[in-house]
Specification:
The protein is an alpha+beta fold. Among the domains are: about 120 residues, no CATH class; about 220 residues, Leucine-rich Repeat Variant, CATH 1.25.10.10; about 120 residues, Immunoglobulin-like (Sandwich); about 100 residues, TATA-Binding Protein. It has 36 helices and 16 strands. Strands 11, 12, 13, 14, 15 and 16 form a six-stranded antiparallel β-sheet that branches. Strands 3-4-5-8-7 form a five-stranded antiparallel β-sheet. β1 and β2 form a beta hairpin. α1 runs antiparallel to α2 and α3 runs parallel beside α5.
């Protein structure tokens, strides 16, 4: 490769671009003639030329051929060239797919890694669909080295971000199992993949929640990690951050055991961060974990003791000298404001938060704005809005539009004084100017129109703005609308005569855009109807603009001119009738604001805007009925919850024409939520494993025994029931000669409304040969249920193994035998006869050659928790029983049984009755 070294030296020594170009052209000509002889060296030269920015239009096929070389050095250069020269739509890409597949199937890990790099860097849809199965195979293969699994996980992540359909839903359980991998690098990479997948398919990847909680506890509490992953005394900070973030993608678990695992880990993290280390790297790593732990604590919203601790800490963070810490502190406090029941702890720091608006870093200023918006309520709205208006004059252009939206929403939401609302809204529009979106001024018009108390004050104020020498065009639009609709209400006031209103609007006419001129023309036709004394001046305007070059304005002016000069005023009065109140719709202000936060790669489980904005996380059009609605609703008019109407002035004629004359801010800008693809629920009864019923049937009448057994695993069960409560202990024994990894159980409650399940302990993820782990589950019968729960058991034993079993938790387990006299039995039997409380069935024994006798039948009935009543039935062969079914919500149900066995034919007739009473 000396020629390559010399070529690079020549280019570095070239003093002018012309000399460099001359040397490159000479080398390209040489390469074209001698390519076949030394392919590797010449491809390297082409790569160097390409990296320098020169166009290389040949040699791509030679690079593709190098991929198939046997030598690693040649294959490496080939892959490097392919990833640089080719893109996902390149015509040569289909030639390399088979070569890449061959390297993926190779037993050489280095070749596997080269192929994975190429797929991740180039991989288009065609390549991804062709090779994703092989990448997944490398990821899950027990023969793959840790560094290959790590690269395979990241390759799948890269493909998924481009084309989500490439990752199959059926892979979920196997991918989740790798979160238990002993190699921290694999765990980190797989967790990154699961984080992306879980955001789009939360139901399919819900098993990752328990995995994340368990792995977090092992790292933080049990110090179970490789020594190499202790970064400046902080164990595995990258994995901790990802696990904490993953737990925020799901609602808090109802399982007390899982909550306990998370609570223990969070407390340990908070305790470890009680002192600030002087080492910068340790401080950064510790803060990264700490802030994510704080966000998770806020997300859980149930750990009161932890919430008290973090409230005081956040107050210190927002005053830190470090910009990053201040930013993260403000962000976490914004999250707290979005979840907390009370804002009092945050209000203590209001002056510091307001001061953050003048921070030297724009990110901190933007985050301070978010926090002020979220922490605002009726008690502090006026000072916060005033501060935001002051800051708006000097705010960065990048955040002015968002500030205007937030000020407008807060002004409307917490206004209890009509004059304050009008003053702030008009002052906001006058200050912000071009940064006021259409939704803001349309919302002001909408609220004034729907509230009688506002109309006179708003019309007087907007007229004063119109009379000023400088008035922004947005105010002119509001002025045209409000004066056209409500100008007659102030016509008798000093300085507000019809001619003064007309002259004020006319003075702004020439400097406005066509859409604003259209609004003013419509206002003038209103004036013709309301103020006949200035009709002559108004007709002059219509006559002038009936000759304008703008076709829409010309048509509007001509129509208004004809309308104003008709012999009678009947049509004019009809067309210019008062605008009705606007209908209530989703707020376009909030829609526009939340649209700015939509589409991020990390889908938040909360939105900026306070507790009320997060009452339903699925809703983004979250304007609650505000102080405006309470104080402004008069005369039975519906208050303006949201948007409706038209951009034009308050005239029915205004719905004709210009492009701004659609429904007034009536567009709901929120996008449809992404539809989640749901894969099969492997824990459901639809996926029960073969031979599951053998042990299940035995355990229906026994308290302990073997529920399932095969060559690898044995599942034992022990149960105890007291009243409506039941405790089930499951024992999992590894019968094989090798260890089992990533052992996971998932319960599926098909009777969730009637049966409560609470996990008390989880099995260990790793089971050594001939060893055992156990799981305790508590059950509570709330009322009568019919579908027993099922359990999904998955584990790694070479490959992923899975079992779905039905647990023998059935309604009769919550029964206790009762004693009744013969008289009481028949009395109750007669009282509650007939359906639906009485059922009768004839059945035989299942199984070829099965027979029964009196002893067997009695044992079976007793196993079903019936108290057998002897000497009640005249026929001694018949069995009579009584029991009480215990439920927590339905109370106690008395149950009666009469079994008539026919031992000759092995057929029995079963009659039972149920009555609700005390035993």
């Amino acid at each position: 490769m000396r020629g390559l070294v010399q070529f690079i030296a020549d280019l570095r020594n070239a003093r002018a671009r012309e000399l460099e170009e001359k040397r490159i052209n000479k080398e390209l000509a040489n390469i074209r003639q001698k390519f076949r002889g030394r392919r590797k060296k010449y491809v390297c030269k082409l790569l160097y030329i390409y990296i320098l920015g020169w166009n290389v239009d040949f040699g791509h096929l030679e690079a593709v051929n190098l991929i198939s070389a046997n030598k690693y050095s040649e294959k490496q250069i080939g892959y490097l060239a392919v990833t640089l020269f080719l893109h996902e739509q390149h015509e040569l890409l289909h030639l390399v797919v088979n070569s890449i597949r061959k390297d993926l199937l190779d037993h050489n890990e280095l070749n596997n890694c080269l192929a994975l790099h190429a797929i991740a860097n180039v991989g288009g849809r065609e390549m991804g669909e062709a090779l994703s199965g092989d990448v997944h195979r490398l990821l899950i293969s027990p023969a793959s080295k840790a560094f290959v699994k790590k690269k395979a996980a990241l390759t799948l992540l890269r493909l998924y971000r481009k084309y989500p359909s490439i990752v199959q839903l059926e892979w979920a359980e196997r991918i989740i199992s790798l979160m238990d991998d002993s190699d921290m690098g694999v765990t980190l990479s797989v967790t990154s993949l699961v984080m992306a997948l879980a955001q789009d398919n939360p139901e399919q990847y819900k098993g990752s929640y328990v995995k994340a909680a368990q792995r977090l506890k092992k790292i933080v509490v049990e110090d179970d990690y490789a020594p190499d992953y202790l970064y400046y005394k902080v164990p595995c900070p990258w994995i901790q951050v990802k696990l904490l973030r993953l737990l925020q993608y799901y609602p808090p678990s109802d399982d007390k055991h899982i909550r306990g695992l998370i609570r223990e880990s969070l407390q340990k993290i908070l305790d470890a961060a009680s002192e600030m280390p002087k080492n910068v790297q340790q401080n950064n790593a510790q803060n990264a974990v700490l802030f994510e732990a704080i966000n998770l604590t806020i997300h859980l919203d149930t750990e009161h003791n932890l919430m008290v601790q973090i409230s005081s800490r956040l107050g210190k963070f927002i005053t830190s000298r470090e910009t990053n810490v201040r930013y993260l502190g403000l962000e976490a406090m914004t999250h707290l404001a979005a979840r907390a029941e009370t804002l009092d702890p945050i209000k203590k720091h209001q002056s510091i938060i307001i001061g953050s608006l003048r921070d030297r870093d724009i990110s901190v200023r933007r985050q301070g704005l978010d926090l002020l918006y979220s922490m605002c309520d009726a008690s502090n709205a006026q000072p916060i809005v005033s501060e935001l208006l002051k800051y708006l004059q000097n705010a960065d252009f990048a955040i002015r539009e968002e500030m205007v939206l937030k000020i407008a929403i807060l002004t409307e939401k917490y206004a209890t004084d009509i004059q304050w609302y009008v003053d702030i809204s008009l002052r906001l529009i006058a200050t912000a100017g071009d940064h006021v979106s259409d939704e803001v001024w349309q919302r002001v018009v909408q609220i004034v129109t729907n509230n009688d108390e506002l109309q006179i004050y708003a019309a007087q104020n907007i007229l004063q703005y119109m009379k000023a020498d400088h008035c922004h065009e947005t105010l002119v639009k509001i002025g045209g609308y409000l004066l056209g609709e409500f100008g007659h209400l102030i016509a008798d006031s000093k300085g507000c005569s019809p001619i003064e209103q007309f002259l004020a609007l006319q003075s702004k006419f020439q400097s406005c855009s066509p859409s604003t001129k259209a609004i003013l023309l419509s206002s003038f036709i209103k004036f013709v109807n309301l103020f006949p004394e200035i009709k002559t001046q108004l007709l002059q305007v219509f006559t002038l603009y009936s000759h304008t070059l703008d076709s829409e304005l010309q048509q509007r002016a001509c129509e208004y001119l004809v309308l104003a000069t008709l012999s009678t005023d009947d049509l004019l009065r009809t067309v210019c009738d008062e605008m009705p109140p606007f209908p209530e719709r989703a707020s376009a202000l909030l829609s526009r604001l939340h649209q700015k936060h939509a589409g991020t790669s990390d889908k938040r489980t909360w939105v900026v805007g306070g507790k009320d904005a997060n009452a339903d996380p699925k809703e983004f059009n979250l304007v609650r009925n505000t102080g405006l609605k309470r104080s402004f609703t008069t005369n039975g008019n519906p208050s303006l919850g949201t948007n409706g109407g038209s951009h034009g002035p308050a005239t029915k004629a205004s719905s004709l024409g210009t492009d701004g004359l659609n429904d007034l801010a009536g567009l709901d800008l929120t996008t449809e939520p992404q539809k989640t693809l749901r894969g099969p629920n492997l824990a459901s009864a639809a996926h029960l494993s073969p031979d599951w019923e053998v042990g299940y049937n035995k355990m229906l009448i026994k308290a302990e025994g073997v529920l399932y057994e095969d060559v690898q695993i044995q599942v034992g069960i022990r149960t105890e029931y007291r009243g409506q409560m039941g405790c089930v202990l499951l024992y999992f024994t590894n019968k094989s000669s090798t260890a089992i990894g990533s052992f996971t159980t998932t319960l599926d409650n098909r009777s969730a409304e009637h049966l409560k399940i609470e996990t008390k302990s989880l099995p260990e993820p790793n089971i050594e040969p001939d060893s055992q782990t156990q799981q305790m589950v508590m059950f509570e019968a709330r009322s009568v249920f019919t579908d027993p729960p099922t359990i999904r058991i998955s584990y790694l034993a070479g490959s992923l193994q899975g079992l779905t079993l039905q647990l023998p938790v059935v309604v009769h387990k919550f029964m206790d035998g009762a004693e009744l006299s013969s008289e009481d039995f028949f009395k109750r039997w007669k009282q509650i006869g007939g359906a639906p409380r009485e059922a009768q069935k004839v059945f035989g024994l299942v199984g070829k050659g099965r027979t029964s006798d009196a002893a067997f039948t009695r044992r079976t009935v007793e196993g079903f928790k019936w108290g057998i009543l002897d000497s009640v039935d005249p026929n001694a062969k018949n069995i009579v029983g009584a029991s009480v079914l215990h439920t927590s919500e339905g109370g106690k149900y008395g149950c009666l049984l009469r079994l008539e066995p026919n031992y000759d034919t092995n057929v029995s007739q079963h009659r039972s009755q149920t009555f609700t009473s005390e035993p």
